[in-house]
Fold ABC transporter ATP-binding protein.
Amino acid sequence: MENIIEIKNVTKSYSDFKLDNINIDIKKGFITGFIGPNGAGKSTTIKLIMNLIQKESGEINIFGMNNTKHDKKIKSRIGFVYDDCCFFDNLTIKSNEKIISSFYKEWNHDLFTSYLKRFELNPNKRIRKLSKGMKTKFAIAIALSHNADLLIMDEPTGGLDPIFRRELLDILYDLIQDENKSIFFSTHITSDLDKIADYITFINKGKIVFSKPTDIINDSYKIVKGNSELLSMINKDHLIGINKNRYGFEALTTHSRELIESYQDSIIVDNANLEDIMVFHIKK
Ligand SMILES: Nc1ncnc2c1ncn2[C@@H]1O[C@H](COP(=O)(O)OP(=O)(O)OP(=O)(O)O)[C@@H](O)[C@H]1O
């Protein structure tokens, strides 16, 4: 399977944080969700991909090209949504379009206008007068209007109401039906990813915990529960982030089959969603 983004042995340090020799392959034709707690390194990774900050070591290839050497060529094919996006605050949406469209060969004015209507954005409104959610909608409309091959979004759903969030997920799902398009986005709303992501990359404290297909993650991670007696017998290496309570314990595991075999009736096994996986890993 072809990779649309390849991050190889990339390191970036700040005074109290290190993105530590990370490796990620993002697959072409799929939606990859990027999850991790606050300060894990998601935005830093995305900024490195977008060549907005400098790495200390390693290499990043996008569309098979080095991202620093082919910066312009690569960016013309990416729809990028992030919080501190650099729009012209004092100008209207319409005037912003005029300027921004000139950067993209494949700008589609009609499509942009249709997104403005769909997102209920008034083209005559100045950017600085938009609410946070409206600004995000505007950024999404821009990102979707130049036939980008790759959408990269840093927490696009953060300031959005649940109705529009669902609409955005539908738009992303429709977009990805074209196998030449790819989407990589970070979010704290893991239930959105349960709905649409094909792959999940999980980062914690500057290290990649895993980058895997969603169905494999769902298959391998389970929640196990039992009483304190069971906990005293179980091999703790098989448990991730043990949570003790007055009834016993619960923990995440990737060894549910062995545990069921060994402890049959005294262990309860439930499915784990992405939030469980994240929370138990962070506890660890
Ligand atoms: N310019 C900077 N100077 C110093 N430290 C920075 C800088 N940018 C980020 N950091 C630090 O790097 C770490 C990772 O930050 P980053 O923004 O990548 O996390 P994140 O996973 O996107 O978090 P969140 O979910 O809260 O947005 C944090 O400890 C942050 O303080």
User: Anything to note?
Assistant: The chain has a mean pLDDT of 94. The CA atoms of residues 239 and 253 lie 5 Å apart.
